[in-house]
Every structure is written in structure tokens, then in C-alpha cells.
Specification:
The protein is of the alpha+beta class. The protein is 35% helix and 10% strand. It contains six helices and four strands. The strands form two sheets. The chain has a two-stranded antiparallel ribbon with strand order 1-2. It has a two-stranded parallel ribbon with strand order 3-4.
Length: 134
């Protein structure tokens, strides 16, 4: 994903010329505003594992709590990944995965949004409506 989205990341930082419907060119910066996903895809892209929410810190036993749990923020996930990387080399996939599971992470050591500003997974993941209603 990081390679595929490289042009979009460059547009965020450096800007890109885009044409409006009248043909006028404008210099634009295009941050990631929304990424439409179903729940399994959101979990994979948010780097969370098991039965953990991709947008909050709640685990499956807390899903019915009457309050909203704190957001699963970019800074929290990257800090957890940094701790895992200090303990285990990411090239040792099995050991890295085992250590990441202690933080309810899925073992992806460099998510595509790690260097996006301002990219907050708990904000830009949008549920796919058709899967959400049934």
C-alpha cells in the first residue's frame, strides 16, 4: 500500500496541479479524508489484531459498553509498534507477530499511513454502508 499510495502522499506534502470543471488549474494539497472499508479490512489496515476495534481501544468484550472508548490513535499504534521493534527484529516474522499480539496488533510493522500528516485511522476509516446494515 505504501508504494501504491506514494503519489497521493506526495500530493499531501508537495501539492499537485488539478483542473476544475471549467478547465482552470489549481495547486492542491489532498490529505487522506476517508477510506471506505469493511471491518476486516479496517482491522488489517489499522494494524490491529484479533477481536479489537480498528477505531477505538475497545476489545470485543467491551463492544457493548454504554460509552465510547478512547480512539485508537496513530501515535498510540506507532508507539506500540516502536516498543515491539525494540524487543524483536521485524525480519523475524514469527517472533515479531507474537510480540505484536501482546499489544493487540496484527504484526504489520509499517502501516501505509505511518508518514501521512494529518492521518488518523480512527477518523479516516469509513464503514462500508452495505456491510454495516446487515
Amino acid at each position: 500500500m505504501d508504494i501504491v499510495l506514494r503519489p497521493l502522499k506526495q500530493a499531501v506534502h508537495e501539492g499537485v496541479m488539478l483542473s476544475d470543471p471549467l478547465g482552470h488549474s489549481h495547486y492542491c494539497f489532498t490529505p487522506l479524508a476517508s477510506y471506505i472499508v469493511d471491518t476486516p479490512e479496517a482491522m488489517m489496515l489499522a494494524t490491529v489484531g484479533g477481536k479489537t476495534s480498528p477505531v477505538t481501544m475497545a476489545m470485543f468484550k467491551q463492544f457493548r459498553d454504554p460509552f465510547r472508548h478512547e480512539p485508537h490513535t496513530k501515535s498510540t499504534m506507532l508507539a506500540q509498534l516502536a516498543v515491539v521493534q525494540m524487543k524483536v527484529d521485524p525480519s523475524d516474522i514469527e517472533a515479531f507477530f507474537h510480540e505484536a499480539q501482546k499489544f493487540c496488533l496484527n504484526g504489520v510493522f509499517k502501516p501505509f499511513w505511518w508518514d501521512q500528516t494529518p492521518a488518523e485511522p480512527s477518523h479516516f476509516f469509513t464503514p462500508e454502508f452495505l456491510h454495516l446494515i446487515h
